């Protein structure tokens, strides 16, 4: 079974600085998708960025980028020029590329709480 | 484009009671997934519905059941509520035939006393 591990329960960053959140996963599959979601105090889970395992190029979305290391099964999120609105829980999630039954589910880490200090 | 909506926002029930949570999927999406998120935890997959049929289920007992309607909206029903059912229930919609991202609603906070 696949697992997702986020080893940093809490992180903090100064406004305008850069922070990296870590995520590792375990799978025997070769094709899958990885996601970072943000959950602010409003509770709504917001998709931040996604990565397809078959793509070697790291995904980038404005101030958010990932460092995807497939062999190491590592998927870290870098937030540049941090803003106060970035403060939230950040979850790393895995989804199999197989489209049968439970394979379509997202498997989640425990999350990292990010504080942004002014 | 209408996003995912859920109702109610908050709910308080007594142990042993039954509850129904509702979700309207994002426009154009035909698949709905339900997740349970306990306090301080990541979400756990309950089940997924596609074309009104259950299409995958996580490790939840049969007292967790669901429905999907022709307009792709969905309900999550929980019978014989237990204290451990207290959690945030998240609904996510996606397009099975298109991009694989799941888009989430704001959740329903269920408290069982």
Give the topology string of chain B: H per helix, E per strand: EEEEEEEEEEE
Rg of chain A over CA atoms, rounded to whole Å, is 14 Å
List low-pLDDT spans of chain A. none
Radius of gyration of chain B: 13 Å
Strand content of chain B: over 45%
Number of DSSP strands of chain B?
A: 11
Task: Identify the most extensive interface between protein chains.
Answer: A-B, 26 and 27 residues
Shape of chain A: globular
Low-confidence stretches of chain B: none
What gap, in angstroms, lies between the N and C termini of chain A?
A: 41 Å
Oligomer state of the chains in this structure: heterodimer
Element order of chain A: H for helix, E for strand = EEEEEEEEEEEE
Describe this structure in words.
With 118 residues, chain A is an all-beta fold. Helices cover 0% and strands 51% of the residues of chain A. Chain A contains no helices and twelve strands. Chain A has strands at 3-5, 10-14, 19-21, 24-26, 32-39, 46-52, 60-61, 64-69, 74-79, 88-96, 107-108, 112-117. In chain A, strands 2, 5, 6, 10, 11 and 12 form a six-stranded mixed beta sheet that branches. Chain A is globular. The model of chain A has no long low-confidence stretch (mean pLDDT 94). Chain B is mostly beta strands. Chain B contains no helices and eleven strands. Chain B has strands spanning 5-7, 10-13, 19-24, 31-37, 44-50, 53-57, 64-68, 74-78, 87-94, 103-104, 108-112. In chain B, the strands form two sheets. In chain B, strands 2, 4, 5, 6, 9, 10 and 11 form a seven-stranded mixed beta sheet that branches. The model of chain B has no long low-confidence stretch (mean pLDDT 92). The interface between A and B is medium-sized, with 26 and 27 residues.
